[in-house]
Design brief:
Elements (H helix, E strand, L loop, with lengths): L2 E2 L2 E2 L2 E5 L6 E4 L47 E5 L3 H44 L2 E5 L5 E3 L8 E2 L2 H8 L3
Parallel strand pairs: 5-8
Antiparallel strand pairs: 1-2, 3-4, 3-7, 5-6, 6-7
Protein backbone atom coordinates (compact mmCIF):
# COMPACT_ATOMS: atom_id res chain seq x y z
CA UNK A 1 0.00 0.00 0.00
CA UNK A 2 1.27 3.45 -0.87
CA UNK A 3 1.49 6.10 1.84
CA UNK A 4 1.85 9.71 0.78
CA UNK A 5 2.83 12.59 3.08
CA UNK A 6 1.48 11.00 6.27
CA UNK A 7 -1.90 10.04 4.85
CA UNK A 8 -3.01 6.72 3.46
CA UNK A 9 -4.31 6.36 -0.07
CA UNK A 10 -7.73 4.90 -0.90
CA UNK A 11 -7.88 1.11 -0.85
CA UNK A 12 -10.18 -1.47 -2.45
CA UNK A 13 -10.59 -4.79 -0.64
CA UNK A 14 -12.26 -7.68 -2.46
CA UNK A 15 -13.00 -11.36 -2.04
CA UNK A 16 -11.40 -13.76 -4.53
CA UNK A 17 -13.78 -15.49 -6.95
CA UNK A 18 -11.95 -18.80 -6.43
CA UNK A 19 -10.62 -19.12 -2.86
CA UNK A 20 -12.99 -16.50 -1.32
CA UNK A 21 -10.11 -14.93 0.64
CA UNK A 22 -9.59 -11.20 1.08
CA UNK A 23 -7.13 -9.21 -1.05
CA UNK A 24 -6.59 -5.49 -1.64
CA UNK A 25 -5.42 -3.08 -4.32
CA UNK A 26 -4.72 0.63 -4.21
CA UNK A 27 -5.96 2.92 -7.00
CA UNK A 28 -4.89 3.66 -9.62
CA UNK A 29 -4.98 0.08 -10.83
CA UNK A 30 -1.49 -1.31 -11.53
CA UNK A 31 -0.07 -4.50 -13.01
CA UNK A 32 -0.47 -7.42 -10.62
CA UNK A 33 -3.35 -5.84 -8.69
CA UNK A 34 -5.76 -8.18 -10.46
CA UNK A 35 -4.29 -11.29 -8.81
CA UNK A 36 -5.46 -12.74 -5.53
CA UNK A 37 -2.68 -12.45 -2.94
CA UNK A 38 -3.43 -16.01 -1.75
CA UNK A 39 -4.10 -18.19 -4.82
CA UNK A 40 -2.81 -15.92 -7.65
CA UNK A 41 -6.09 -16.23 -9.60
CA UNK A 42 -6.79 -13.15 -11.75
CA UNK A 43 -9.74 -11.18 -10.32
CA UNK A 44 -9.67 -8.08 -12.52
CA UNK A 45 -11.90 -5.15 -11.63
CA UNK A 46 -14.91 -5.13 -13.93
CA UNK A 47 -16.01 -1.55 -13.42
CA UNK A 48 -16.28 0.72 -16.43
CA UNK A 49 -14.12 3.54 -15.06
CA UNK A 50 -11.29 4.18 -12.69
CA UNK A 51 -9.20 1.02 -12.34
CA UNK A 52 -7.29 1.62 -15.58
CA UNK A 53 -5.96 4.85 -14.11
CA UNK A 54 -8.26 7.18 -16.05
CA UNK A 55 -10.08 9.57 -13.81
CA UNK A 56 -8.02 8.95 -10.67
CA UNK A 57 -8.35 10.19 -8.08
CA UNK A 58 -12.19 10.16 -8.15
CA UNK A 59 -13.53 13.60 -8.98
CA UNK A 60 -16.10 13.88 -6.20
CA UNK A 61 -17.40 10.61 -4.81
CA UNK A 62 -17.49 6.88 -5.37
CA UNK A 63 -20.52 6.22 -7.59
CA UNK A 64 -20.08 2.54 -8.47
CA UNK A 65 -18.26 -0.53 -7.24
CA UNK A 66 -14.79 -0.51 -8.78
CA UNK A 67 -14.60 -4.29 -8.53
CA UNK A 68 -17.89 -5.35 -10.18
CA UNK A 69 -19.50 -2.13 -11.47
CA UNK A 70 -22.60 -2.37 -9.22
CA UNK A 71 -24.30 0.97 -8.47
CA UNK A 72 -25.73 -0.05 -5.08
CA UNK A 73 -23.33 0.50 -2.19
CA UNK A 74 -23.80 0.99 1.56
CA UNK A 75 -21.74 2.39 4.41
CA UNK A 76 -20.82 0.89 7.76
CA UNK A 77 -18.25 1.42 10.48
CA UNK A 78 -14.87 -0.08 9.63
CA UNK A 79 -14.76 -2.56 12.50
CA UNK A 80 -14.81 -6.33 12.00
CA UNK A 81 -17.96 -7.97 13.41
CA UNK A 82 -15.84 -10.50 15.27
CA UNK A 83 -14.32 -7.74 17.40
CA UNK A 84 -17.73 -6.26 18.19
CA UNK A 85 -19.10 -9.66 19.18
CA UNK A 86 -16.02 -10.34 21.32
CA UNK A 87 -16.54 -7.06 23.19
CA UNK A 88 -20.21 -7.88 23.88
CA UNK A 89 -19.44 -11.43 25.02
CA UNK A 90 -16.63 -10.16 27.26
CA UNK A 91 -18.96 -7.59 28.80
CA UNK A 92 -21.54 -10.31 29.54
CA UNK A 93 -18.90 -12.58 31.10
CA UNK A 94 -17.37 -9.77 33.19
CA UNK A 95 -20.76 -8.51 34.34
CA UNK A 96 -21.73 -12.04 35.41
CA UNK A 97 -18.60 -12.30 37.54
CA UNK A 98 -19.14 -8.77 38.88
CA UNK A 99 -22.75 -9.63 39.76
CA UNK A 100 -21.63 -12.75 41.63
CA UNK A 101 -19.00 -10.82 43.61
CA UNK A 102 -20.48 -7.33 44.06
CA UNK A 103 -24.15 -7.84 43.16
CA UNK A 104 -26.02 -5.34 40.98
CA UNK A 105 -23.71 -2.29 41.38
CA UNK A 106 -20.73 -4.31 40.10
CA UNK A 107 -22.60 -5.61 37.07
CA UNK A 108 -23.94 -2.14 36.33
CA UNK A 109 -20.43 -0.65 36.56
CA UNK A 110 -19.13 -3.19 34.03
CA UNK A 111 -21.91 -2.42 31.56
CA UNK A 112 -21.45 1.35 32.05
CA UNK A 113 -17.70 1.05 31.41
CA UNK A 114 -18.28 -1.03 28.27
CA UNK A 115 -20.89 1.48 27.04
CA UNK A 116 -18.40 4.35 27.45
CA UNK A 117 -15.68 2.33 25.70
CA UNK A 118 -18.09 1.48 22.87
CA UNK A 119 -19.01 5.16 22.46
CA UNK A 120 -15.36 6.21 22.28
CA UNK A 121 -14.54 3.53 19.71
CA UNK A 122 -17.63 4.39 17.64
CA UNK A 123 -16.66 8.07 17.49
CA UNK A 124 -13.04 7.41 16.54
CA UNK A 125 -13.41 4.66 13.96
CA UNK A 126 -13.89 5.51 10.29
CA UNK A 127 -16.48 4.32 7.83
CA UNK A 128 -16.13 2.00 4.87
CA UNK A 129 -18.29 1.74 1.75
CA UNK A 130 -19.32 -1.81 0.78
CA UNK A 131 -20.84 -3.26 -2.40
CA UNK A 132 -24.06 -5.24 -1.97
CA UNK A 133 -23.20 -7.60 -4.85
CA UNK A 134 -19.53 -8.57 -4.44
CA UNK A 135 -18.92 -7.25 -0.90
CA UNK A 136 -15.87 -5.25 -2.02
CA UNK A 137 -14.82 -2.67 0.59
CA UNK A 138 -13.70 0.87 -0.22
CA UNK A 139 -11.61 2.62 2.42
CA UNK A 140 -10.59 6.28 2.52
CA UNK A 141 -12.64 7.32 -0.54
CA UNK A 142 -14.59 10.60 -0.42
CA UNK A 143 -17.99 10.00 1.22
CA UNK A 144 -21.02 9.80 -1.06
CA UNK A 145 -24.17 11.09 0.68
CA UNK A 146 -26.30 8.82 -1.53
CA UNK A 147 -24.87 5.71 0.14
CA UNK A 148 -27.03 4.80 3.10
CA UNK A 149 -26.42 2.36 5.97
CA UNK A 150 -26.93 -1.35 5.36
CA UNK A 151 -30.44 -2.34 4.23
CA UNK A 152 -31.36 -5.98 4.86
CA UNK A 153 -34.08 -5.95 2.18
CA UNK A 154 -31.61 -4.72 -0.45
CA UNK A 155 -29.02 -7.33 0.62
CA UNK A 156 -31.60 -10.13 0.34
CA UNK A 157 -32.29 -9.08 -3.26
CA UNK A 158 -28.66 -9.85 -4.08
CA UNK A 159 -28.51 -13.07 -2.05
CA UNK A 160 -31.52 -14.69 -3.77
CA UNK A 161 -29.37 -16.04 -6.63
CA UNK A 162 -26.57 -17.26 -4.34
Amino acid sequence: MRVTAGRRDPEVGFYCDDCDRYSTWTPPFADGDDRCRHCALPNPPRAGKGPDGAGWPPVETLDECLQCGNLELYTRKDLPQQIGCAVVLSAVALSTVAYAVWDFPGAFAVFAAVAVLDFVIYRRIGSVTVCYRCHAEFRRFPANPEHRPFDMHRAEEYDVGA
